[in-house]
Amino acid sequence: MRRLLAFIVLLLPLSLSVCGQTASRWRDSLSVINRQIAVSPYSSDLHLRKAAINIELEQWEYAVEEYGTVLSHDPSNLAALFYRAYANTHLRHYNLARNDYEAFLRLAPVNMEARLGLAHVLVKMERSADAMDQYNRLVELHPDSALVYAARAGYESERGVYDAALYDWEVAVRLAPDNTEYIISRADVLLRLGKKAEARRSLDSAVKKGVPRAALRDWYKRCK
């Protein structure tokens, strides 16, 4: 759950075609974009590109500023709303992030990534009931997504609601049977519930799917 946002990819096109650049190359790209902005009339595309590079360089404040510029011209710009929320989350400005995610979801209520982001922010704000409402809504909206069951299971595990977490991990594994992280997470919950034999079978399943047994040594010890 602490790494919840790590899986959120660039879901909206920002016209960045180069992937895997070094920080130096990103800074070079930023210089080019800054020159273009300086000599051009307002362009949302240029400001979105600049903000995306700011995010790559973890320049969260600058990214927030650029997305604010876009939103001042186009308050319904989904890319700017989503990524400003993302940047504000990194800055721990959770109220601001929440506002943007909620604005995004008013325009695109079915979007999975934004609702996951909102749930994550609510967890950080220690609004557990509201966070659980969002996870439940995600399951309602995306009943065939292993990811949303895994997200809810992770939060339930953190809260110590292991029976509910086990149910969700079971569904996640059924929907994504080759995801070994889900299988191991299920084993962890089984161990917390004292179901050692079932946990061992879950670990054995992970090994059969390619996880080195040595990597699970500590887990197997807990099964004794």
Tally of extended strands?
Answer: 0
Oligomer: single chain
Shape verdict? elongated
What is the gyration radius calculated from CA atoms?
21 Å
Helix content: over 70%
First and last CA, distance? 28 Å
Strand content: under 5%
Report the sheet with the most strands, covering strand number, pairing sense and barrel closure.
none
State the low-pLDDT regions, or none: 1-19
- H/E series, N to C? HHHHHHHHHHHH
SS class: mainly alpha
Helix run count: 12
Mean pLDDT: 87
Structural overview:
By secondary structure, this protein is mostly helical. Helix content is 70%, strand content 0%. The chain has twelve helices and no strands. The protein has helices spanning 23-39, 44-56, 60-73, 78-90, 94-107, 112-124, 128-141, 146-158, 162-175, 180-192, 196-208, 217-222. The longest helix is centred in the first third of the chain and has 17 residues, at 23-39. The protein is elongated, with a radius of gyration of 21 Å. The two termini are 28 Å apart. Mean pLDDT is 87; it is low at 1-19.
